[in-house]
Amino acid sequence: MREGELRKLWERTVRRLELEGILRDERVKEALLKWPRYLFVEERYRRYAHLDEPLPIPGGQTISAPHMVVIMLQLADLKPGMNVLEIGTGSGWNAALMAELVKGEVYTIERLPELVEFARRNLERAGVRGVHVILGDGSKGFPPRAPYDRIVVTAGAPEVPRPLIEQLKPGGKLIIPVGSYHLWQDLLEVIKLEDGSIKTRNHGGVAFVPLIGEYGWRE
């Protein structure tokens, strides 16, 4: 399928998300249009990238459905200049969108070497700048660049990992799915208040691959 056809299909998807009331943030819309999902999947899946459902990527993982990415980005409320950490790089798509929203650097951790390379290739080919893909255990965060204004986790944890809370700035926010190993989790918005205490909001059921690591699930 040609680039122009893929582009038209993607623009329809973005428009549909608007009409459904899911996509409400104009800056998130602009980021989606700048970095369409078809740039971050394998060639054989590009014709399906406009569909509002997860798609396979290497390592037995998935690239999230567009509506889920929109929901998480809007909850994160990313602003220019924020220091942001992503846990679970996957294809690199979400990191590209976040870098566009913060107009700067994004640090993203991936535990699977083949996905680190996949994401780096995708980001380089697309021309995305400012995304630093790190191989490591994301459940432990990334202390060298802490504290963070925002941490976004794209895998389901059994509980909120303590290191991620510790690496949040006062006033910072963590978006994370928490629940069972397979299928259903709750999407939590964890806010670190100025006094260091935590406030949590539950935004309903989601389904993510498991967060594997010292503060996540065991393999």
Notable traits:
about 220 residues, alpha/beta, 7-stranded mixed sheet, two-stranded antiparallel sheet, 6 helices, 9 strands, about 30% helix, about 25% strand, globular
- N-to-C terminal Cα separation, in Å? 38 Å
Walk across the major sheet and give the strand order: 5-4-3-6-7-8-9
Structural class: alpha/beta
Low-confidence stretches: none
**Main β-sheet, in a few words?**
7 strands, mixed
The dominant shape is: globular
Q: Write the element-wise H/E pattern from the N-terminal end onward.
A: HHEEHEHEHEEHEEE
Mean pLDDT: 96
Describe it.
By secondary structure, the chain is an alpha/beta fold. It has helices spanning 3-19, 26-34, 66-76, 93-102, 113-126, 162-166; strands at 55-57, 61-63, 84-87, 106-110, 131-135, 148-153, 168-179, 184-192, 198-207. The mean pLDDT is 96.
Task: Describe the structure concisely.
With 219 residues, this protein is of the alpha/beta class. The chain contains 6 helices and 9 strands.
Topology of helices and strands:
Blueprint lengths: L2 H17 L6 H9 L20 E3 L3 E3 L2 H11 L7 E4 L5 H10 L3 E5 L2 H14 L4 E5 L12 E6 L8 H5 L1 E12 L4 E9 L5 E10 L12
Parallel strand pairs: 3-4, 3-6, 4-5, 6-7
Antiparallel strand pairs: 1-2, 7-8, 8-9
Helix pairs in contact: 2-4
